[in-house]
Fold these 4 entries.
Entry 1:
Amino acid sequence: MSRALVISGGGCKGAFAVGILKRLFAEYPGLNFDMFVGTSTGALMAPLVALGEMGMVEKLYTTQKTENVVLENRLGDRINSTSIFDASPLWQQIVENYTDERYNKVVANGKKIYITTTCLQTGQMVVFTTDKTPATPAHYQIETIVNANQFRKAIMASACQPVFMQPIKINLHVPGSPNPNFQYVDGGVREYAGIQMAIDNGATEIFTILLSSAEVEVEDIEYKNLFSILQKTIDIFTDDVGKNDLIIPQQFNEALQYIDAVKKKMMSNGVAEIDINNYFSISGLQTPYESKKPLKLYQFQPKAPLGGGPGGLSFDPVEMQQMISKGEGIAGEFIASINTGDVTWA
Amino acid sequence: MKVITHTLLLCLVCIQLKAQNKRDTEFPKEFIMHLKLHNGLVTNFSNLPELYTGGLQFVPQYTIVPQKIRAGVITDFYYTNKKISAAFGPTFSYKIKTFKAAPFGSLGNINLNVDHLWGTNREKLIGGGINADIANKIVIGLSFHRDYNLNTWWVQNSIGIRISSVKKTIEIFNQ
């Protein structure tokens, strides 16, 4: 069994994920993950969670203010720039916290971290990973990280929401890179949560933390200016990418469950297991379902929107503390509702 | 004189402390230079005809209290009374309003300026005005000055552009 932790994008709303993990680790001290998939804020959290540094993650997500992440500017000055905000403070934080030492520790411990980004030049999703032998699926590109600086830049790019924050040249100083000047932005542009990536790399038990709310909130307000409409539009896009991102893995799992049920029915009717497997194996036709067992998907999501401004870029320590509490509440509900037989990590 | 200097310094410190709003993006610590085209009239509000005036100003300034005050000099070349003249003197701008484009930054500001100009034809102008700075590119303003030497009033409007370059953000992560 391979267990994956997938954390979606959402800026400061990552505090909700901190709450979830804090409560889960407190309840199940033996809980560990074989792979970590992070998009945007999830990419910032994944390496630290992989190293078991939850105290540091919590500190980061309860003390940061917006100016510690992005700098606002006079909009007139940014017309010829690549972003509205300047993400230099975030880079400073990444350099300070995602040190060479931590990167080496991640690699030495064999922790498989997958960081999702989107390449502006190809429009493709590119996943940067510490996995030396990752799966190579057709619908996205995967690159193994070669050094700590590339690791930091991949995290930075994954967190940089296009238009708001600058695109990052992740491979600028990577020896032998064919396209060192390609620019990368937030992986959430293409995929909000990397559940499919976890499946592709063999995860069978997946904990997914989504930072957009499950329920649609009907607002009783009129949007009267350009900026509030832009903010709302981004939220709608993010929600939509999130929903689409979930549908495919859920359908995939339903198909696996269906195949598994059919196999069991055949077996109960006296068909030998070897024959069943032969029926489901078509030579020359590779299917994503072959030799796959139904997955265990555990999904954590806030019930109502968490706030946090456009793209989750308004970092308010008080609001983030509340998000942590909400996460702890949702994890508490999960702990109370899960069948003890399903708990493989206690 | 010492008392005045100390009082001014104290005022400056107080304003500086009050101005520590990191989220206000207008009047950052920087050098800025505007080129302004101005015109208007010179009058003493009597029955005498008013004179037209128009000219070109270079206004370099530096922010001495971030988010609040800029100080600099005005070099003015203008036409009035059938003569081309020049004037020079100090100027101070005080920001009174930031037009926020929350949460993305700001669109501009409104500032007041006070200045004193010495002209080549014995003019001694003291006064000020109000300016709207749009997107850190264009400034439009209205000014009133009193020439206390020649006993006239100068009422003018102006339009200017920023001619100093804006400091480029250094993207360390892309170097």
Entry 2:
Amino acid sequence: MSDIQSRIGTPWKKPPFVQRAWLRWALLLGFVCYLIAAYLTIDVNWTRVYVGLERGKQFILAFTSPDFTSRSGDIWEGMLESIIMTIASSVVGIAISIPIALGAARNIAPLPVYLLCRSIIAISRALQEIIVAILLVAIFGFGPLAGFLTLSFATIGFLSKLLAEDIESMDRAQAEAIKASGSRWLQWINYGVQPQVMPRLIGLSIYRVDINFRESAILGLVGAGGIGATLNTAFDRYEYDTAAAILLIIILIVMSLEYISGIIRERVQ
Amino acid sequence: MLRLEKLVKTYKTGDQALKAVDLNVPEGQVMALIGPSGAGKSTLIRCINRLVEPTSGKVYLSNVELTGLSTGALRRERRRMGMIFQEYALIERLTVMENVLSGRLGYVGFWRSFLRKFPQSDIDEAFRLLDRVGLAHMADKRADELSGGQRQRVGICRALIQDPALLLVDEPTASLDPKTSRQIMRLICELCKERGLAAIINIHDVALAQMFVQRVIGLRFGAVEFDGLPEGLTPDVLTTIYGEEDWEATIEKVDDESAVA
């Protein structure tokens, strides 16, 4: 090395991501200009905000005196409906997701099956829950059936995609070893693939139960049943104390689900 | 017993991994396959049980031609070829016993295997094999709790419980220490002798191969460069297989091998 002498004693810096200095500064300047321009387009009516603050304050204050009792019947009914929707849609959704995930993993499915399963996932992911719910409410009428179907459908897109990705990144050698023993396809999946993806499947399933419960609170707003419907009614009647009670219960349930999922995920490693 | 005729494998990228390999392995012969990385050793043994589909050529296992078999028939023939892997390829999250019994998957139906209700004869054989390799007390441990040498022993049991006629062994000692490597090689060769199995062993360690096998095949760029007795591996021969290097230290005879056991 001839130029090693000139290197000694000079500091070293990580080469910048954008090599050309003028381009680097232009991008930075452009970004700042964009931020300023974007800020200027936000049209805030400060008098409206001032009035709104009062309502906001009432809403938050309601949390200090949540009213669990006066609508306890409605809350209980809505909550039960939500929980049933959550469990049923999670079970059905996960059961349908597993075969679709197998089909959507490029390393185990032939191309036509792969494309079919990937398009099912794409459709499920492209349609937002609320839109699906509105459509299904239109078809099946108001009530938890529409909500249950919506959540099942949404679960498929979520779980199949993530599970398929886990299958695609599994250790090939383990699966190969099972194949080399002369196993059938299903045995190969059961021994070579399933043990590898089981922790992820369980983790994702619990997470999805969590999401489905939270979504079930939203879907009520478009008439798909559950605690959301009760919550919506409470807001419509300006019964912020009842709404606060409902929100507190939702927060409590989500937190306990989070806690349980933590314990289970630790166990299945 | 195993006969390869003009076996060719060309990968989609255009790399020719095997160039018309002819090979004949008689009953009960333990054979080492040596050669530099990328010479096609792994491809060769994977083309035999069709984990890799050969491009052309024929593979005969006891007069059954394998390359043209349907899925179901291939499955039945795979039962007769036990495979031992580099890095063990055990199912990490299953128990040692499940790993060994997975070698019987070709013989039992789906529901039996799914419910882990294997026939008593399989379970007995699994315990006998585990006892033979000194791991009977580990049967209910999870595979990822074992050390490297122990894992490879489980891998050997899994291959043997298939009741194979041929063992395909891919770099069995690649991630093991020198002592464990010898023990594993000795175990494989002893078991082959006990059961009269033929074996093809891919191996990087030339000295280790010389110590245990009856025949050595040298592969270079997908073609057989050397086929002969282990004693025939002279520095000149190694140079034709691997390229120029000082070979004296590699093929030095290890006389005190029994002392290591």
Entry 3:
Amino acid sequence: MDMNIPYTAEARPDTGLTNGKLGIWLFLASEVMLFGALFSTYLILRVGSPVWPHGTLNVPLGTINTVLLISSSVTMVLAWAALKMNQFSRHRTYLIATVVLALLFLVNKFFEYREHLAHGTPPSASTFDAIYFTLTGLHGLHILGGVIVMVYFLGPGAALWRKNPEQFANRIEYTGLYWHFVDLVWIFLFPVLYLL
Amino acid sequence: MDNAAAIGTTAAHGHAHEHAHHELGFWRKYVFSLDHKVIGIQYTLTGLLFLFFGFVLMMIMRWQLAYPMSPVPIIGGLLGTANAPGGIMLPEFYNQLGAMHGTIMVFLGVVPLAVGGFGNFVMPLQIGAPDMAFPKLNMMSYWVYFVGGVTMLASFFVTGGAANSGWTSYAPLAVTALGNGQTMWLIGMVFLITSSLLGSVNFIVTIVQLRAPGLTWMRLPFFVWAQLVTAFLLLLAFPPLEAAGVLQLMDRVAGTSFFMPSGLVVGGERLEISGGGNPLLWQHLFWFLAHPEVYVLILPALGIVGEIIANNTRKPLWGYRALVYSVIFLGFMSFIVWAHHMFMTGMGTTISAFFQTTTMIISIPSVVILTALLLSLWGGSIRFSTPMHFALAFLPMFGIGGLTGLPLGLAPTDIHLHDTYYVIGHFHYVVAPGTIFALFAGIYYWFPKATGRMMNDLLGRIHFWGSFICINIVFMPMFIQGLGGMNRRLYDGGAQYAHNAELLHWNVVIGMAAWTLALFQLPFIYNFFTSIRNGKPADRNPWDATTLEWTAPSPPGHGNFETTPVVYRGAYEYSMPGAPKDFTPQTEPERR
């Protein structure tokens, strides 16, 4: 069963890429198209709407979440850098920190949703509420997906470090690329939904 | 030897793998396999089953059109009293059949067959790779597709039956559709889209990273180029439809109004919704996928036809580079033509003018490709094998399909032809005698590689001539009906309209031809299954072909090649001056 697929750990000389790195970039390209379509939807609905609500979202909570996510991107990079410096326990500390920050983000989001629903504005209340819940909900699912992957690399996935440290570091790098993308989506979401 | 690709054959070929022997259980070998060849065969068989199922749906619809309000024979009693009391189908059921025919043929039949089946099986072999870049992801793509397919099939049995708002699921019709069928359709689509996305990442990485030494870009077989561009289309065009699917799901389940305008009245009652949404937005998001999807349907077919024409004319493909650049240009252009499906929506003449222009531009690379394939025949000593019959028929069929599209791509003529049978005739010429014929050609051509045995030639010819004649009798009259103004969506063909009076009798002709077409698939089905065991044994290279898949054993073992092939030349060096044989495989070193 263990067939060796070339270029999983080392880069192919003429393309300069490992399979995983090309794969994750292509996946992110498709994610750009997904969120691109959703942001276009936002734009079209907003342009076609006579009124657009302002100040209904909790900006302080949103700001805290922005800080949390940017910090988690930093710890993610540090988790990868630690592997490159062969410091496995430091890597685990930073990866755990990333997971904790991501979970804090989701907890915050939960309180935000509860507050929003308590105001009597479920997704069906207006197109603004609809796009708010859908965009942040899908973004939240992406956060959750990232958390699951990171927990895997803290648990059973970590065994690869002893067998093939190079490949393990690559996998953490790919996770990091995805994580920065999810972070970047939020950097767009925050001003678009909370501030503008 | 892990003889995974051999369904029912013994390890008669490829003894060289014997030393790497490790036996897998039945489940890991045939069901949850990581081998691209087994996954390719799984996709092929599932895709063929769905094609047949989609065809059956259409044959039932054709009965209603040919003989309105008379009981469906043979299977009329099986349709259920909710759908067809006394065997006479209800309009709601007719709509379900129509919507699901389109969905199944496109998303569950042709794409899985062309991309999942042929792409998976042939592409890694043609580039000299041991497998796909991500075998586990590959297995997952298949199973996610399978779940999507089961969801779609299951939707026939929920309250209100399957989706009945057309395969395009236009809002607000689809959002307000009763029952759970439309919701199931959306969930099924999310699965199918996810499967295609995983698959396309895998395809692109495999082609970029796992090409054998010496296999430079301009030495790639045309089929691989076609698959590469197809994968990019799937990768970038499908996510917007996934977004749209999620939004429509929100509209249906959470009561949002993404696609629901203010003040919408359904059945005399004003809907209790916030409104403010945009129904046109659905059409934009849908066609942003669905136009590139047309090229997803046609490009692998062009790739297959290219391979078979080069092999059977014993000549290099005419204008290989022009073909490659055309296919890339086609890929780019296909992202900016989508609104030519929407001339009638009132989106404005300026936008129409833009999309008419891009539509005329995209026809240029299509014509270049067709012309290059046609010119490849010039001066060749053509071998009329079964795959070549289908490949040759593809050219005029695709030509008719393409040329009849021009009047639809120009708004003034589209106003008359829109939503008539002309449109049905046009795109079916592209995908049915076009793409599906190319897929049949591919099955006959690569069958010996997959099984180590040839398919029967005589049965293949009966299958070809029967299908070729019948399918033209099915689709040609639709142009007459459409030009006469016959609407495509009417349950009884539109008997209440005077202008249809002299067009309706064609429905009987079309119906007869469609059912006869089904009969002519029987030789194929019989041939396919009996040849697995009883076909004439084939060696590695039964067609005397040049590309890499023919240097592997038939069927190839796990890991494909005994030693990694090294490539020294282009993909189609047939009848090279001074060469000892009329074909020079890509692995043949330069002579000094």
Entry 4:
Amino acid sequence: MTEEAIRQDNISSMSEQQSLPQEASEQKKSAFNNNNGRSSDNNIDNPFYDPTLKARHAKAKRFKFFTIASLVFSIAFLSFFLVDILVKGLPAFKQAYIQVEVNYNEKTLESTRSAIDRKYRRVVSRSWYRSIPLQVEKNPALMNSSQKVWVLADDNVDQYLKGHYYKLKSKEVKLIEELKSSGDVELRFNTSFFTSGDSKIPENSGILSAMIGSILTLIVTMLVAFPIGVMTAVYLEEFAPDNRFTQIIEVNINNLAAIPSILFGLLGLAIFINLFGMPRSSPLVGGLTLALMTLPIIIVSSRAALRSIPDSIRQAGYGLGLTKIQVTKDHVIPLAFPGILTGSIIGLAQAMGETAPLIIVGMIAFIPDSPSSIFEAATVMPAQIFTWAGMPERAYIERTAAGIIVLLSILISLNALAIYLRKRFEIKW
Amino acid sequence: MKSFELKNKRSERIEQGITALLILASVISVLTTFGILFSILFEAIEFFQIRSFWYFMTGSEWSPGVADSKFGAVPIFAGTFWITAIAMAVAVPIGLGSAIYMSEYAGDKVRDVLKPLLEILAGIPTVVYGFFAALTIAPFVVKAADYFGMDASFNSALACGIVMGVMIIPVISSLSDDVIRAVPVSQSNASLALGMTKSETIKSIILLSAAPGIISAALLGLSKALGETMIVVMAAGLRANLTWNPLEDMTTVTVRIVDALVGDQAFDSPATLSAFALGLVLFIVTLALNIVSLTMIRRFKEKYRINTL
């Protein structure tokens, strides 16, 4: 080892900040020997001494610090973001209920607000009053009786109990405090958030109809995108000759993956709705639009999966007299299937979070009841989040955040499933 | 023997049928691109038949709702440009810095943790970012501006730009990381052997070799920022406001497209058709960016003979 090489080594290991003490001392020793007794830290005598070295090392350190800082910023932003959403959204999983005396009789059926004592009227949810006739219809024994029941509280009571901004008169605040001390008001797990659809009354609104809308839309998406995507990948990877036509398709797919999603919405509006006359706001149109967006993702990942199958498999098949189609259908595709599935699930997760094109095709309609077919008007989860985010009442903010938590949990589970499948079925050739 | 031949012929026909089906499937993606192009183009032409193209490109007043409606898109382009510029100012240094750390400094184990963590940022739906921008970052920007004695709008371009930048970080970092790792080790070894520090090697050798890939990543990020919709719809303004101040509210092409198509106007009214004119501009610009970006990355791949990118 010449001294020069050692010095370079020293420099690079110093800048990497991981010079092992043992190694360093060895190098120092050898440097000492080579220099015929000259001390290596006596820099003036050293012909390789660079006066700017100190500054250069400081610069190297600063640069490394910058790269760490930028990474830390991204991670910090991510954690701040997640904490912020959790803090905003978790309270929505609890909902305030009040125990009050309810009178069921002819009069209350006509004017539902008279069912409970005057002083409680403003703290009980409007949606609960509306449900009184339904309750009696379901259970006729309730008629002409008076019972103490837990009823849904008004959103302002709910916000007051959670310590958020509220709009209550001081008289009502006093009443709530009284109820609190007597144990007649409590926060319970908010089941109605998962069992009801959208509502203009914040405490009554839930995410169910949006969830069903999302499921219907994604079924359409996958039914269209999965077969077409896999077939395209199989064609390009196994069959296509390397000619201009194939190149055009390839460039086009890469380009399609980078086209802004909102333009797919314009396509859906102009072609599916205006030209083909499909029903606006329906999961059919939304699903088809998303399918076109998901196609490139499925194609790219399926091609990667097909490419990872070694040629020996195909050669063995041909050697046994199988045709190209038989080799592909019975050997290559089954072997590549885990990879194809993983890519499709990731594509599905991306389609699930997509909002912009669906807004354009009208999937932000107000949908209180769950859609039952792909031709009915529907909304999807991200669109529901968007609608709630625009609502003026304070109680919608936590519902929006709660909707985000639900959506993110589903997306994370889907991605985790994809990773699990990949790890579980991955074949190392 | 005869039956064998017959079977062979039949299966041959089936095979041809299947191949035709596969070709048909591949053509759908091409049809989609043309579908987008033509659906936008026809409506845009209709718009330019009733409104001046020249005023659309150079006019500075955008007022679609009123009786004497005007469609000058310059303030919209300016707003889009500003918000995108802020986003890129956030995303490029941070994304590139993260990529350099992951590919050059971090060990394999650390990298295996960090990369998926950054990709979570890419998996978050944009509507969620929009909510975060509107409810957390925008009020924060207003407070911060207030502290320095400035007035900021609750729909400020700055808040949108920052959040959009964070959204684009993984786009840039992920691709840059792959590209930097694809640069042959011999190059950096040579540089280190000549006495360059690690940072000098990275800056003047590795980044230079990886430049086409990094630029391509940045262009891809730029095209994503230009077409981003939900963040700006939720956090940016609706007003076509021509200003240099990033603390004021601004609007973007995508916001105006959504606004024009969500309303109740008749489909052939100029207000609705203007969305397609804006969409056409967006399509052309992003298409150009994508093609440049894809060409650069392909050249890079050919130069270093990589198949995995």
